[in-house]
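Recall from the previous lesson that a structure prediction takes nothing but the amino acid sequence as input. Here we apply that procedure to Cytochrome bc1 complex Rieske iron-sulfur subunit from Galactobacter caseinivorans. The sequence below is the only information supplied.
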Amino acid sequence: MSDESHGGSRNSGAVDPVGQGGVDQFHNPGLPHHAERITDKDPRAVKRAETQVMVLFIISVIGTVLFFVGYFGVGHSGIEIGTKLRLQNTLIGLGTAFAMLGIGLGIIHWAKALMPDHESVELRHEIAPESQRAEAQEIIETILEESGMDRRKVLRNTLIGAVLVAPIPAVFMFRDLDRSQLGANAMVDRLRHTMWAKGVRLVRDPSGLPIKASDVQLGSAFHVIPEGLNELKEGKLNEKAKAVVLLMRLPEDKMTVSPGRETWNVDGIVAYSKICTHVGCPVALYEQQTHHLLCPCHQSTFDLTQECKVIFGPAGHALPQLPIEVDSEGYLVAQSDFQEPVGPSYWERG
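The prediction returns the following C-alpha cells.
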C-alpha cells in the first residue's frame, strides 16, 4: 500500500520536497537591529575609553618591571631564604600576570569600544591574479583605518611599548638557565656533581634522621637527602634540587641488575634520583604493586625493576642510580656520587 494512501510524510507538510518552491516559504530575517554603543554617540566616552586602553597597556609595562624587581632585586637582598623565595615568586607571578593581562585586556577593550561597530556582508568571489596586490593593500588600509592606529598615536605607542617589553622576561629566564662563562658543558658539570660521596649517610627529608637498612620494608618509599644538607647556610636549595633521591626496597628476584651494578643495592634496597629526566620535575609517586615511579608533570613512567627504565611518557633517559651500602652501624650510606649527571636529558651527557 502506497505512502500517499496513509497520509504519509510526502503529503503531510512535514517535509519540503525538492523543486516545489519550498525555499520561497522562508522569510529572510536580515541583519539584527544595530544598537549603537555609547562611544558611537558620546565623544567623552571615546576619550574615556582611550584613556582606559592606555592605562591597561601601561599596567602591562609595570608588570614587566615588577617581574624584573622580583627576578633580580630580591635575589640580592639579605632577607631570610624562605621569605625571599615567597616574595620573589609573588613578584614574578604578579608581574607576569599583569604584563600579559594588560596587553590582552587593552586590545580587547580597544576593539570593543573604539573600532568601528557595523555589520557587513562580503560575497565570495574569485580574485584575479593581477588584482591580488591591490586587493591586499586595500584590506590592510581598511584594517589600519578601522583600528585607528594612525589617528590614536598615544594608544599605538603604548601598545608597541607593552608588546616590546613583555617578552623580555622570558629571554632572561631562558638565558639564566646557565649564566656561567665556563663553556658549553658548564651546566652538565653542575649536574654531574652533588653532595653525595663515599660514606655520606642517607637521611630522611626533611627531618634529617638517618636510615637503617632494617627501616626499609618491601613496598615502602623514602624521600632522602644527603646528611649535612640541612645545615647549609647558602645554596641549600640548589644542592637539594640535585641530590634528592627516592629509596625503595624490591624483592630481589624481580630486579634486573646490569653488569657493574651488582653491588649498588643492599638486599634489594635501591636509591634513584628523584629528578625526572624530562624537564626536571620531582618524581614523587611510587606504585608498589607494579614497582613503577610516576612523574606527575607529564606522566613519564619509570620501571624500578628495570633500573628505572622509561616505559611511558616523554622522558628520554632512565633515572640515575645512586650506589649505596651499609656502614658499620647499619645505616645506609652512599658508595659514591651519581655516575652520570642528574636532571633533564636534553643537557649534553658525556
